[in-house]
Amino acid sequence: MFITSMQTQHPTTAQLVKATLAAIVVAGVILITTVLPAEYGIDPTGIGGRLGLGVLATDHDADTLSPTPAPNPAQSADQTVPVSRSAADRAQIASKAAEVFGANAGQSFDTAAVSLRTMSYRNDTLSVTLAPGKGAEVKAALKAGDGIVFHWKATGDVALDMHGEQPDAKGAWTSYAVERAQREASGTFIAPFDGSHGWYWQNRGTAPVTVDIQVAGYQEKLYRP
Predict the structure, then answer these.
(1) Contact partners, residue 169, CB within 8 Å, separation at least 6
(2) Which CATH number fits domain 122-223: 2.60.120.380, 3.80.10.10, 1.10.443.10, 3.20.130.10?
(3) Residue 185 CA: distances (Å) to CA of 56, 108, 119, 143, 153
(4) Tens digits of per-residue pLDDT, 189-215?
């Protein structure tokens, strides 16, 4: 039997000190040349810029401070037009205000709050009686941006679909409010597009129900389709 004696050599204190100093130097180089340019846009050596790391810092700041909102699929390209028009309108009304009443540092402007119309203001009323299991529509013809104030009341519970249809739409509509059973409702409405906007009531009870509706505003007419 042969017994081999192996002696393990441990690093000396001087070797450990040298290794530690070398690690610190390497970490410092990495910090200055890559971490600072990539994370904070600080590039004292210029190496980060040559490596393209400054772009990472720009993207990081943009994500943190000013996130880009997700696009709304319902928006179309032509919806940017009213924004610039609104800015022009605000500039115009600000100029008029300064000319007529004098400039005021505390005055702000919002022309989008007013939608002027040349057509006559209308008050319309209509009444429909629904037999058990039957339904009926009442519509107001409106242009996009036209507003109405409405109130309707039924003698019994009715199912409701308040909705709008664009001109020449076939089998397509946009619902604004849906209720399983309702007897009365009041509110304001601004037409999001040209077309017919109104109510469909359905009587799901066993007795006839009468619905009376009042509409005030700039509707071209209130009618039953």
Answers:
(1) 195
(2) 2.60.120.380
(3) 55, 35, 27, 23, 7
(4) 999 999 999 999 999 999 999 999 999
